[in-house]
Amino acid sequence: MLRERVSENVYWFQSEIYAQVTAGVVAGPQWAVVIDTLALPEETLIIREFIETELRVPVRYVINTHYHADHCWGNHLFPGAMVVGHSLCRKEMLTRGSKALEAARQNKQNNVYRNVKIAPPQLTFDQGTLTLKVGKKNLILMPMGGHSRDGIAILVEEDRVLFAGDSFMPLPYIVDGDLEETVSSIKRVSKMGLENIIQGHGDIILRGEIDSAVKENLAYLAAIKKAARLAARRRNPFEFLDEVSVESCGKSRVYLGGLAEDLHRGNLKILVRQMAADNPRVSKKTTDELPII
Ligand SMILES: [Zn+2]
Predict the structure, then answer these.
(1) Minimal CA–CA distance to 210: which of 199, 200, 196, 220?
(2) pLDDT reported for residue 284
(3) pLDDT tens for residues 108-161?
């Protein structure tokens, strides 16, 4: 587990086990806020222990940036906290989240999720902003779609630090979301005058790196859109897509703990399904068989 102090009372955690997924903590004098939990209970427990022993305050709120397992399946480890998120996040956790957990529990070789309970947001919103005062800092919660329909971002107003959730990633991932909405979220983030972007996966982006990260992500999305459009015109679109590597779209395959290639394939697949829905060679399967992170 990597840990860093981002600014006064603001901490960042990154998994070294699963897809470089991240979480955050903002501490006040009396209580703390957790922003997302990690993929495995044992990792979330390390964060909890850090708060208990180093910060020595109880956790009053857990904010979820979206409903995907690697960001919220540790909620139940903070039983005294109120969970906050998008109203769709609550809905998705109770439906798709519960189903996914049930499926994960069927895996007999790997029973790390046996004690996990779905703890959906109790306090929800779906438009505008929600402001939470933690000590001297304002946390401003706002919808931030693209990666998923229930995405939110959290701005630490005084520090200009944005917890962007998965709307900003080293490799944008749109299988459960929407390409154009991801583009507009990335553009919105680029205009926020930020010191740091905390991505839902990957490293902290520093002020001087924001422009190039934004450019790279927009170029990647344009490249996969173009490739999918070309593929959709072919008789066998997926054969064409096999040749479209992650590098040819301007990204490295080592991103996200080596998952970048798989996610890239998922992005291309979903775009072709949207663009060539009437081609009999294009299966109309749902997102179920594509990785959701
Ligand atoms: Zn996600």
Answers:
(1) 196
(2) 67
(3) 888 899 999 999 999 999 999 999 999 999 999 999 999 999 999 999 999 999
Report the distance separating Cα 122 and Cα 196, nearest Å: 29
Q: Sign of dihedral through CA atoms 31, 33, 38, 40?
A: positive
Query: What distance in Å separates the CA atoms of residue 62 and residue 44, rounded to the nearest whole number?
Result: 12
Residues found in the chain? 293
Confidence of residue 83 (pLDDT cuts 50, 70, 90): very high
Mean pLDDT throughout 9-28? 97
From the CA of 68, how far away is ligand 1's center (Å)?
5
170-181: buried (b, 16+ CB within 10 Å) or exposed (e) per residue? bbbbbbbbbbeb
Give the model's pLDDT for residue 66: 98
* Cα 28 to ligand 1 centre (Å): 28
CA distance 156 to 72: 20
- Looking at the whole model, is its pTM more than 0.90? yes
- The backbone region for 165, taken as left when phi is positive above 0, alpha when psi lies in -120 to 50, beta otherwise, is left
- What does residue 52 show for φ and ψ, rounded to 5 degrees? -65, -45
Per-residue b or e along 138-151, where b marks 16 or more CB atoms closer than 10 Å to that residue's CB: ebebbbbbbbbbbb
210 CA to centre of ligand 1 in angstroms: 21
HEC string for 168-204: CCCCCCCCCCCHHHHHHHHHHHHCCCCCEEEECECCE
Q: 268 near 292, Cβ under 8 Å?
A: no
| Distance from the alpha carbon of residue 73 to the mean position of ligand 1, in angstroms | 12
How far, in Å, from the CA of 230 to the mean position of ligand 1?
27
In angstroms, rounded to a whole number, what is the distance separating the alpha carbons of residues 184 and 271? Answer: 17
